[in-house]
Each structure stands twice: as structure tokens, then as C-alpha cells.
Amino acid sequence: MDDKQKKVADRLRGLCSRREYCVADVLKKACDALEGDRAAAQEVVELLIGEKYVDDLRYASAFARDKAAIQGWGAVKIRYMLAGKGVARDVIDKALEEIDQEKAGSRLEKLLENKFRTLKDDPQCRLKMLRFGLGRGYSYDEVSEVVDILIRKVKDGEL
Asked: Is the C-alpha dihedral spanning 11, 12, 13, 16 positive or negative?
């Protein structure tokens, strides 16, 4: 490993110690810093993986936890975004297992209830709520069930 690779590795160690990165992101940063020398960049990334600075499972778990808790994303959207980052399917599955499904369901109910308040008099309310829930990354079955419950509550005068 030459001096330039060592400097890049030190810089990437600093970045990785501040927040989680996936292997693909670190490889891209290393490639950019090494002016496109992919073999040298791969060497740096392997060093960082060996030193436990980069770990796709740790990244995927943190990503899934944060997106589900803070932004209210569902499993479908989280899976799609992690796959786009080049994270392996089995790693994504393990990360998604850590999400509390009960909290995700209550989060979906809360999101759709808030959306419902803005659409109450809209004739396409059900369709818009379905689209909203699907856009947040929840499955059709989950969204449809919650939307139907909300519509029933309105008809019964509970909401």
C-alpha cells in the first residue's frame, strides 16, 4: 500500500468513525480520492472492512432503524433503498428483522390518520390515502386494511 492509499485510508477511517457507510459508498469515495484507480480503492476498502470500520449489516440496521422510526418508512421502501446502495439481500433481511412490526403498524395508522384529516371531503380520499401509504413503503395489504378501518371509524362517527 503506497502513501496515497494510506492517506485515503486515514481520511476514510475518520469518516467511518463519525457515521455508518455501506461498502459501495466507501468504495466510491476511495475511487474518487484515488482518481479512479479501482484496484487500489478496493484494497483500501478491504483494509477498512478488516478493521471493522465498514460493515454492511451495521449500516443496514442503522439505516432501517432510523428510516422506520424517524421518517416513518415501511419495509418495502427501506428494502428498495438499501438494494439501491448495493447491500446484499440477506443483509437487508436481517436488518428488517430488527424493526418492531407493532410500532410500524401504529406509525402507519398515525400517518394515514393525519393524511385523512387533510382529505376528508375529497371524493378520491381512499385512493389518495392508498397511494400515500404505498409511497411511504408499506405493503398494499397493510395500507388497505388501515384505510378501511379509518373509513369505518368516520362512518361510525368515531373520527
From this structure: positive
d(CA 17, CA 98): 23
CATH topology of domain 56-97: Arc Repressor Mutant, subunit A (1.10.10)
16 to each of 13, 22, 94, 144, how far by Cα in Å?
Answer: 5, 9, 21, 40
Q: Where are the alpha helices (DSSP H) in the chain?
A: 3-18, 23-33, 38-50, 56-69, 75-84, 89-97, 101-119, 125-135, 140-155
Which pTM value belongs to this model? 0.86
pLDDT tens string 31-70: 999 988 899 999 999 999 999 999 999 999 999 999 999 9
Domain regions of the chain by residue span: 3-50, 56-97, 101-155
